[in-house]
Amino acid sequence: MKTTNKILSVLNPFDLSPVDTLAENDETDIEEALTTAYRLFRDQDLWLPAHARLAVLEKTAALMEQRYDALAETAVREGGKPLADSRIEVTRAIDTVKATAAVLRTRDGETVPMGLTPPANHRVAFTRKAPIGVVVAVSAFNHPLNLIVHQVAPAIAAGCPVIVKPAPDTPLSCLAFIDTLHEAGLPKEWVQAIVTSDNDLAEKLVTDTRVGFFTFIGSADVGWSLRSKLAPGTRCALEHGGAAPVIVTGDCDVYEVREALLKGCFYHAGQVCVSVQRIFAHTKIATRFATQLAMKASGMQLGDPMDKNTEVGPLIRPGETDRVHEWVTEAVKGGGQLLTGGEKLSDTVYAPTVVFNPPPDCRLMTEEVFGPVVCVDPWFELDDALARANSLPTAFQAAVFTRDIELAMEVSGRLDASAVMVNDHTAFRTDWMPFAGLRKSGLGTGGVPYTYDDMTVDKMIVLRTDSLVAPPDAGPT
Predict the structure, then answer these.
(1) Distance CA 378, CA 335 (A)
(2) Which residues have C-beta within 8 Å of that of residue 266, sequence separation ≥ 6?
(3) 229-278 pLDDT per residue, tens
(4) Which SS3 state, helix, strand or coil, does residue 349 take?
(5) Is the pLDDT of residue 470 over 60?
(6) Does residue 447 share a domain with residue 397?
(7) Any catalytic annotation for residue 239?
(8) Where are the alpha helices (DSSP H) in 349-458?
(9) Rounded CA gap, 135 and 216, in Å?
(10) Does 379 reside within a domain?
(11) 3-class secondary structure, 356
(12) pLDDT (tens digit, 9 = 90+) per residue, 295-325?
């Protein structure tokens, strides 16, 4: 591809030191990528057979295992997630590729009953999986490898040519994965990358009439705006975020809940779409719980994400640190009690923060903070707690902590969420389970098998033949 003279600098979020530079792509590159991908899709003689796609995925997983350390270090340097957590991300990414290969082995078409009415006699019907078309994937920075794998690997399995635009903050993990796919035998034109920080160029790519499916992970404002501009017929899936709620009942052990929630509150400095943000704790334990959570948060190891002992690393860029601090300051000025944190430790490192009894209309309680901040809000009546938990236009994953199984089932049913964790934090996920934002939080369902289904068409074939006759009634034996 040709490139512009514009250079993208990739910075280490921890100390803002340069990691790499890349030449950005231009409008000509986008047109070339779309032309190439669409030509592949329209010419079935060029399609890759299932066995070839399976072989690519299996070899890709093997190559990723060989490059495990390098992939983890790349993710740390460009994204700032602590090394221990980035290593887990690489493990998950490898598992995601393997899960995608398993989908090819287990997921296919189905038979459709015929002969149930006289006009449907003498027919047999079945469906076959066919690729939906060119897939365009736009991804987020917070899981720079595994998110890309979730968007690209199912497209490969489905037989779709794919064009991927990584977040400009974190393009290196994406490019490493694409190089691995090519080394594993995938022809280069089947997966192409567009690197750009120009939102107008990205929009041109996404809204082109040749795009069959658009997969987006990122902010709700951007995602819903792009969806409104898609060409007629383009299908899409959107994954945004929310301010995940947790209900903690009065019968809980505050120490057990604290330990279970701590990781969900501050994993990757809160830069997770289902990070624990709003904890509604019964008044019987709320003060004790909030104090214990704050005490534990204040002792977390902060700093260089390459240090194996670091638990909380930086936010992605200085502007995000400033924004988080502004939101915390607003909540405290409005009457919330700052139990720990509430300060910038560097341009990008923000202290893990716990705010008790924040004002209900502050941004920490109404918007996704995407930072290392959690609020603890007391409640006395369950109906009130649920009303507050469900009060936002976003809804994704939620949690309830209780020793009462009947209450756990009641709260799970009444929480507005696509998934409710019982006695676990809201950020739990396996890569094969359904993962779906509701309302403003997203559209469609993520997770390997569900994304694969989105990127395929169930093409039905109805075969008419007079030799298909209903078997005679054999009668009693």
Answers:
(1) 14
(2) 297, 300, 311, 312, 352, 372, 374
(3) 999 999 999 999 999 999 999 999 999 999 999 999 999 999 999 999 99
(4) coil
(5) no
(6) no
(7) yes
(8) 363-366, 382-389, 405-414, 448-454
(9) 11
(10) yes
(11) strand
(12) 999 999 999 999 999 999 999 999 999 999 9
* Domain identity same for 81 and 181: yes
Q: How far is CA 209 from the centre of its chain?
A: 25
pLDDT band at 168 (very low <50, low <70, confident <90, very high): very high
Question: Do both 265 and 200 map to the same domain?
Answer: no
Looking up residue 16, the CATH number of its domain turns out to be: 3.40.605.10
CA–CA dist 30, 43 (Å, integer): 20
Q: Which amino acid is at 433?
A: M
∠ CA 62-63-65, nearest 5°, is 65
Q: How far apart are CA 346 and CA 284, in angstroms?
A: 37
CB-facing half-sphere around the CA of 34: CA atoms within 13 A: 19
Please pick, among 273, 311, 320, 368, the residue that the annotation labels catalytic.
Answer: 273
Quickly tell me which residue has 């991804």 as its tokens.
139
Is the pTM value of this prediction over 0.90?
Answer: yes
- The answer to whether the CB of 371 falls within 8 A of the CB of 349 is no
The pLDDT assigned to 287 comes to 97
| CA atoms of 408 and 428, how far apart (whole Å) | 17
Strand partners, 221: none
CA dist list (Å): 298 to 264, 293, 328: 15, 9, 16
Spatial separation of the C-alpha atoms in residues 161 and 175, rounded to whole Å: 16
pLDDT digits (tens, 9 = 90+) for 91-142: 999 999 999 999 999 988 899 999 999 999 999 999 999 999 999 999 999 9
The number of residues in the chain equals 477
- CATH code, domain carrying 364: 3.40.309.10
